[in-house]
UniProtKB/TrEMBL annotation:
One of its GO terms (molecular function) is CMP kinase activity. This is Cytidylate kinase. Keywords: ATP-binding, Cytoplasm, Kinase, Nucleotide-binding, Transferase. PANTHER family: CYTIDYLATE KINASE (PTHR21299:SF2), CYTIDYLATE KINASE/PANTOATE-BETA-ALANINE LIGASE (PTHR21299). Its main location: cytoplasm. It holds the Pfam family Cytidylate_kin. ATP binds at G10, P11, A12, G13, A14, G15, K16, S17, T18. It catalyses: dCMP + ATP = dCDP + ADP; CMP + ATP = CDP + ADP. Belongs to the cytidylate kinase family. Type 1 subfamily. Its EC number is 2.7.4.25.
Amino acid sequence: MKKLVIAIDGPAGAGKSTIAKILSEKLGYVYIDTGAMYRAVSWAVLKSGKDVTEENILAVAKDIEVRLENTDSGLHVFADGNDITNEIRTPEVTKIVSMVAMLAPVREKMVHLQRKMAEKGAVVMDGRDIASHVLPNADLKIFLTASIEERASRRYKEMAAKGFDVELSELQKDIAARDKADSERKVSPLVKVPEAVLVDTTGMTIDEVVEKILDMCR
Ligand code: C5P
């Protein structure tokens, strides 16, 4: 089978990372989680201890070196050489990431890296603007979504399993707010491009979703 470039976009909690990771493993492709890169910048802003202002975010983003590494134990995320794979999934990072991802200079730097990582093909990249902006020539474009109730409930189980004390109703509110910010921002908003295949995963198992996308690849 030809080595493909697969773009997966969609709102928060739609299962993009889970699906993209399994797909990349099955196909022997590189997995690029672009959300993790905006989370890495957000983490560094919090770590700096400074107020989360546009000026401080831009200063941190300018100097940071973000790197993704596909390993046998999954995708690892590095900021300035530190493995921050787990640190970027905290509610504190999630709270500010949409604000960080809204800023054009931050996006330009990350998009440049993302395109470089995808240069050789055989990649699955997930995010919000992959089909519309980062990889407009992708071979397969998927828009993955699910009802807000299901997305919140999946995220709840994920966070509870990690030991975070979260409320389902709060999570649902946070997800809705993040979707709104991501869809309404000026630079590269979350959008379904006309040629993307809509996959609504409400009520579907992970295996069913993976199989459906593998079928499209074939
Ligand atoms: O995918 P994940 O939920 O980890 O993404 C975190 C945030 O990063 C999103 O809510 C969005 O603000 C931002 N993001 C983005 N563009 C991407 C990927 C993520 O703006 N390509």
